[in-house]
Write a sequence for this structure.
């Protein structure tokens, strides 16, 4: 039996394997801390300005992790129930949701208030975020609420997602894939460039 050691790996192969191992380790640590994959999303539009801008990288977590005070049973704090809690300079959580039938990337907007199936939510809506001239639930899209869920709004948008057509109804709790926690300016442009969305 030959006891002579085999040839060493070339240095570039060893460096490549070490880099891959480091990336995998960081990925596993981020997944362990956040509970979601991917643990970061890139902001693709100006809908959350000035608190998030296109090209920002946002660290996200599972909705039930790090739930703030007044969080509902799904871990989300809405703007109307925030009791002094705020994320990104305004009351309530910023959620990442992916509604069935959505052909684009998941949406990252603020959860304004929660509605129940059949609820007339026009009376709770901010008149500044519904179309001009709408005076009742009957004139408002998705009112009464076709199911339980969140009424959402981009901080820089004029109308609720459920009125403007961004969401096909109140955002069901199971559509919420994550909550935004930390914003890193400009770093998301790398991801947007790779995806052809910059």
């Amino acid at each position: 039996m030959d006891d002579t050691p085999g040839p060493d790996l070339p240095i570039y192969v060893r460096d490549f394997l070490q880099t891959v191992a480091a990336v995998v380790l960081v990925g596993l640590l981020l997944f362990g801390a956040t509970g979601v994959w991917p643990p970061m999303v890139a902001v693709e539009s100006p809908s959350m300005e000035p608190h998030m801008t296109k090209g920002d990288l946002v660290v996200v977590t599972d909705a039930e992790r790090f739930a703030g005070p007044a969080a509902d049973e799904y871990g989300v704090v809405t703007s109307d129930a925030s009791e002094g809690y705020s994320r990104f300079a305004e009351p309530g959580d910023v959620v990442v949701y992916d509604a069935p039938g959505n052909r684009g990337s998941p949406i990252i907007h603020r959860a304004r208030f929660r509605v129940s199936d059949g609820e007339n939510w026009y009376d709770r809506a901010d008149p500044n975020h519904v179309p001009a001239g709408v005076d009742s639930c009957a004139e408002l899209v998705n009112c009464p609420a076709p199911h339980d869920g969140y009424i959402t709004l981009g901080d820089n948008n004029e109308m609720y997602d459920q009125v403007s057509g961004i969401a096909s109804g109140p955002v069901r709790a199971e559509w919420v894939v994550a909550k935004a926690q930390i914003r890193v300016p400009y770093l998301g442009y790398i991801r947007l460039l790779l995806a052809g969305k910059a």
